[in-house]
Design goal:
about 375 residues; mainly alpha; Peroxidase, domain 2; 2 domains; two-stranded antiparallel ribbon; globular; metal ion binding
Length: about 375
């Protein structure tokens, strides 16, 4: 979810249907990044900003043409104020290398630990039932229970240190310009790119502001848990302006990452409920009968390709090889079951739909200048 588009930085021409991935560049971009590397990148980008702006703007024009339908639909389905202020190439003048820096940090992190990439995609979703960076805020005496400590996020949400590193790197080049909320969405997009091996690629408008409020109880009120049935899932997504098709498409992110046993322990009893008996037996061997906070192992969501973001998830749903009640629920109506079969059959189509849904989701409940800011430190309000 990607990229600043200067000529030496582009891996994929944005908005192209027939994408060509330069794997050598991808490897180079995902090289380990240290603070020395950040400083070097900062020096290089400062020296080449004028050149990058021109090339960047040309690529962004192409991206805007290719994605105008997705963002238009987002603005139709959401309140007009929600989309106000979001713009492709938002940092093209104030901080041209911003997206490239975030992508470089994310590429390095995903190369070292693919699980972090899954965490960043999940973070983009968890922050974007109100895209304002509120999930990043640490506890304080004034607010001891922020979103970060809500049951959907703690202790399972990963990638905070990657956001910190990206923010530090961006601040070295463009202090006070790039919001943490935008960094979260860019990072989720970039993690999708790397984990999909370049098959999920899209331009993403920027301009989100960081919220000043973060409440643990809102995570339970708005984030759909893995125990939801289909009616509850559709209602939860619809409340945020997302359709049933968006919900099914975004569920495909469960092809990467891990889950705690406590999230699905009710599905692996004897006999298991609508789960492949072999998977249930394997999970019973891995998971305690009654998981606790101190004894709650994790398992991969997709044993077939655990570190690849692809449409294998939908084949797993069809084969009853999924962990969550909410995953299995997709087969409980003819309409959503047909969506599952379509996504399972058509390699390459789901990736495009996923990109569109991520752009749409990233426009939910954007803050304005009255209730938002650009944080200097993503973990605390200014």
């Amino acid at each position: 979810m990607l990229e600043t588009r200067s000529s030496r930085q582009t891996l994929i021409s944005p908005g192209r249907e027939n994408m060509i991935v330069d794997h050598q560049q991808l490897k180079e971009l995902a090289r380990p990044l240290t603070l020395v590397g950040i400083n070097r990148a900062a020096a290089e980008t400062k020296a080449t900003i004028n050149n990058s702006v021109s090339a960047n703007n040309e690529h962004l024009k192409q991206a805007e043409m290719a994605h105008r339908v997705a963002i238009w639909l987002s603005c139709v389905l959401l309140l007009a104020a929600t989309c106000q202020g979001l713009k492709y190439g938002y940092y093209s003048r104030s901080c041209p290398p911003a997206e490239y820096i975030v992508r470089t940090v994310v590429g390095s992190a995903v190369r070292q630990n693919p699980g972090i990439g899954a965490g960043l995609i999940r973070m983009a979703f968890h922050d974007c039932f109100g895209c304002d960076g509120s999930v990043l805020l640490d506890p304080t005496p004034a607010n001891p229970r922020p979103e970060k400590l809500g049951p959907p996020n703690f202790p399972s949400l990963r990638g905070f240190e990657v956001i910190d590193m990206a923010k530090t790197a961006v601040e070295k080049v463009c202090p006070g310009k790039v919001s943490c909320a935008d960094i979260v969405q860019y990072a989720g997009r970039d993690a999708s790119f790397f984990l999909s091996r370049g098959r999920v690629s899209y331009a993403l408008p920027g301009g989100r502001l960081d919220g000043r409020v973060s409440l643990e109880n809102e995570t339970l009120a708005f984030l759909p848990p893995p125990s939801f049935n289909l009616t509850q899932l559709i209602g939860s997504f619809r409340a945020k302006g997302l359709s049933a098709d968006d919900m099914v498409v975004l569920s495909g992110s469960h092809s990467v990452g891990r889950s705690h046993c406590s999230s699905f322990s009710d599905r692996i009893g004897t006999p298991p409920s609508n789960m492949d008996p072999r998977l249930a037996a394997a999970l019973r061997r891995r998971c305690p009968a009654n998981p606790t906070f101190s004894n709650d192992p994790t398992v991969v969501q997709d044993a077939a390709s655990p570190n690849v973001l692809d449409n294998q998830y939908y084949r797993n749903v069809l084969g009853r090889r999924v962990l969550f009640t909410s995953d299995a629920a997709l087969m409980t109506s003819r309409r959503t079951a047909a969506m599952v079969r379509d996504n399972a059959r058509r390699s390459g189509r789901w990736e495009k739909k996923f990109a569109r849904a991520m752009v749409k989701m990233a426009a939910i409940e954007i803050k304005n200048r009255a209730n938002g800011e650009v944080r200097r430190n993503c973990r605390v309000v200014n």
